[in-house]
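in:
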């Protein structure tokens, strides 16, 4: 088996003993280390494979110009931009198989950019003094990132921090050895949804698409799932997308923490990937389980899904606003885009007798979609609920037509 190479990122001026300890641990696991120094002021006792001068140059400055900024935050912003470029280039050149970075708040800030620069599926680990902290907003996290707390590692080596560092070293080496690259022999359809108690179309569509020779990846639209979906779309990984769950999009518009980022419903269109879209669950607003429901939502229907997540319901005016922005994003798409509009409900609790049933608000969503959807985005209205068989039948009819006409092919869009 070919030895794996781990890119090790850290500030070798202040943390050289810790970095050398990680190097030795990785090497003891049978892997190779590619070292990268992102420090600004000092120098390591021995050269690293990628120096701080290389990183600064990628950020558009010399290291002396970085130092001349006179502000640690400004300096590390430059180094972060350079580091992300260096990491992306080194991976494209085949120089490493997985990434491990270390840091406090400064180093973590930089490491998050480096992780974002790598494709999905590349093992990426950060040992941080602020792992899992609310200081880190969700949009800064790569969808498949792993973080380990750098316990007791603020200043100097000890057995506590050695435990953290050795676990991280073993984890990234193990991940690179065990990782299975995605199989690109079948064209991939990306689909968004929620649990089958809320949206059920995936249970019909996935086997039907597989029978047609396509692989199907279904993304759980609760924040990180949408990030993964959008990341893969931005990489051109999909032959077609079925973006039928808009809960993350509504959350984004309303400022919920359960968001997948500002680029939701943009990347497939930007890449020219054929996309089918529906307003599934665009009536629901998510809150983290630990949050109190804001007072202005107090008189609305409320669903506590579990201790992690709970939902309220958007009113008609909010739904109109979200549909307008959704139409704007779909109108900017460079590839074929089709909108499905189920007239009898957009998720399981949006039907008579259920807690989120609001026919007037649904009617406003429908009216606004009819009014603002761009001419270049054909719309199919269905006198059905999104969970009805009729919805899946209509989707598959269009999909088969797109395949027959060559709109959907097995050719990657990257």
């Amino acid at each position: 088996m070919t030895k794996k190479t781990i890119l090790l990122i850290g500030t070798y001026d202040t943390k050289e003993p810790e970095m050398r300890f990680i190097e030795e641990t990785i090497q003891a696991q049978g892997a190779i280390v590619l070292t990268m120094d992102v420090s600004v002021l000092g120098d390591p006792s021995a050269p690293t494979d990628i120096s701080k001068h290389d990183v600064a140059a990628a950020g558009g400055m010399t290291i002396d110009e970085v130092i001349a900024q006179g502000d640690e935050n400004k300096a590390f912003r430059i180094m972060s931009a350079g580091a992300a470029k260096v990491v992306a280039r080194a991976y494209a050149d085949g120089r490493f198989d997985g990434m491990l970075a270390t840091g406090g708040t400064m180093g973590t800030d930089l490491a998050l950019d480096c992780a974002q620069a790598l494709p999905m599926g590349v093992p990426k680990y950060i040992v941080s003094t602020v792992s899992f902290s609310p200081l880190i907003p969700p949009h800064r996290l790569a969808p498949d990132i792993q973080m380990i707390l750098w316990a007791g590692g603020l200043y100097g080596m000890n057995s506590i921090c050695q435990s953290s560092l050795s676990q991280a070293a073993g984890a990234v080496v193990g991940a690179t050895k065990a990782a299975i690259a995605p199989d690109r022999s079948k064209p991939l359809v990306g689909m968004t949804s929620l649990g089958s108690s809320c949206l059920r179309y995936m249970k019909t569509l996935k086997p039907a698409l597989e029978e047609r020779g396509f692989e199907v990846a279904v993304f759980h639209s609760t924040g990180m799932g949408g990030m993964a979906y959008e990341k893969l779309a931005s990489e051109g990984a999909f032959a077609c997308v079925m973006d039928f769950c808009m809960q993350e999009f509504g959350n984004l518009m309303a400022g919920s923490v359960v968001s997948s980022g500002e680029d939701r419903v943009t990347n497939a269109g930007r890449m020219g990937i054929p996309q089918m879209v529906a307003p599934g669950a665009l009536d629901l607003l998510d809150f983290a389980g630990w949050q109190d429901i804001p007072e202005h939502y107090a008189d609305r229907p409320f669903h506590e899904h579990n201790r992690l997540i709970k939902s309220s319901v958007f009113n008609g005016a909010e739904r109109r606003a979200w549909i307008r922005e959704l139409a704007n994003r779909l109108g900017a798409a460079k590839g074929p885009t089709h909108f499905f509009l189920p007239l009898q409900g957009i998720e399981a609790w949006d039907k008579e007798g259920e807690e989120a049933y609001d026919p007037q608000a649904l009617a406003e969503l429908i009216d606004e979609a009819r009014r603002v959807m761009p001419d270049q985005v054909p719309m199919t209205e269905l006198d059905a609920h999104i969970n009805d068989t009729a919805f899946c039948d209509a989707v598959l009819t269009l999909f088969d037509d797109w395949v027959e006409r060559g709109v959907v092919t097995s050719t990657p869009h990257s």
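note: The mean pLDDT is 93.
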